[in-house]
Amino acid sequence: MKAEAVIQPDRGGLKAGHRAIPGLVLLALVAVLYFPSLASLVAQWQGHYGQGFLIALIAVGLVWRERHNLARIAIKPVPFGAVVLLVLGVIWKLAHLLALETAENYLLFLMVVTGVWTLYGRGFVKALAFPLTFLFLALPLHEPPVTWLQDITAGVSVFLLQAVGLLVVWEGYMLHTPAGTFEVAETCAGWRFLEATLPLALLYAYFTYTSLKRRVLFMLAALVVAVLANAFRAAGVVGLGQLLGIESTIVQDHYGWGWFVYFFAMLMLFSVGRRWSEAPEPGLEIQQARSDRRVGYRVASLAAISLIVASFIPFSVADRGFDAELTLSTPYEELNSTPEGNWSPAFTGVAEEIKLRLAIEGSAVEVYAGAFLVGNGGDYTSGSQQMFSDPWRPVVEHPVGPGIPLRELIIEKSGLQRLVWYGYCAPGGCVGSRLKAKALEAWALLDGSSYVGIVVLSTPIGLQAEMARADLRKVWGSLELGLEH
Prior knowledge:
Layout: H1 20-33, H2 35-46, H3 51-65, H4 67-71, H5 80-97, H6 101-120, H7 122-127, H8 129-136, H9 147-163, E1 169-171, E2 174-177, E3 180-183, H10 191-208, H11 212-244, H12 249-252, H13 255-273, H14 293-311, E4 325-329, E5 333-334, E6 352-360, E7 363-373, E8 393-401, E9 404-413, E10 416-426, E11 429-431, H15 434-447, E12 451-460, H16 465-478, E13 480-484
Helix pairs in contact: 1-6, 1-14, 2-6, 3-8, 5-6, 5-14, 6-14, 9-11, 10-11, 10-13, 11-13
């Protein structure tokens, strides 16, 4: 067994108590210069991602736990890191103007990691690998489509209910029972359980095991248990609904029941996982080298200058007013009647908009065009920019097809259905993908263009969906959309 080496503190550089000062100053500078991202992150922690606060505090505690090891590592600043910080700062500025909130959060984290590497060197990053990895989990995860989780939850729930002799009929995400019908909604799919499990299992695996294999296996087992626990929770709600009545408190408000099931499952998992725990390995020898205090101060100054310069790089488009006239022309006759079902898109932050109702072969097609100022801090592709408003609800969505760069959306209200085609437009053309739309907006920002836009076509579906699609295809082919400066 290799004995832990006794390593003398670095005597060529900063005193042990002063080594954290450059890092703390740089963190404060990042917080001040890139405050919008920090404020957005805290707002998300106060909302749907409440565990972010706890994860950040635990990460700080993990750094504090390594303080004695860090005191033995020589500081080896990396001057090139200042260049990386400058690039990250510029990209952050662009992401902020394009309202890419998730990208801003990740860039903020990368600035912190790059700052540690720049000021202290590779040895510090290696020593802080786990605290930094754990801190990454404080960033809200982008929730992916959860239909697969809904399928698993519904399937396992039906299996468990039928195994104990309860009657249930499975139809899509609806579970029909003698007591009533239960829906496995997106919010019940189990994504919140997975979000809570990831940091919890990572922390447990790190302190319980030393081999990478066992850590990975435990993480995978924890994620599987979380999914199954959610299915058991759903089955319990449906079962209790049949036994106690669908109006019972535990069925109507099953939040507490769900987390009881979750924590019980995690407790059992941790108890079983403890049986394969591994003793901590002895510390590895760290080769000491002298630190040059002057080099450290110079690199710290370069890093600070890079962050400041990046935050003040001008993107003047964001400060310009909207000085263009939106135009929309088509050869079809315009109607003055109200759309069936009072359909209307609900957009915010629009600089200028046009609404038309056109007559086409006995049907009516609504056309909407809206222009948005580039880099105004708003997101014209976000979920808040709705193609419909309540009480309309989406039924299905997919690309229109070859030759038409739009997306098709079917919405429904009280038995009425509408076919909606929409796309995002910029000087480079129109696209249906949000990712491509952001790329066009970024190019418009860098190219000096002042606007991006949305175009929406809609018509009642009626009895023939293909006829409705043909009407929209004719209108799209005839449209001339432009902005005249």
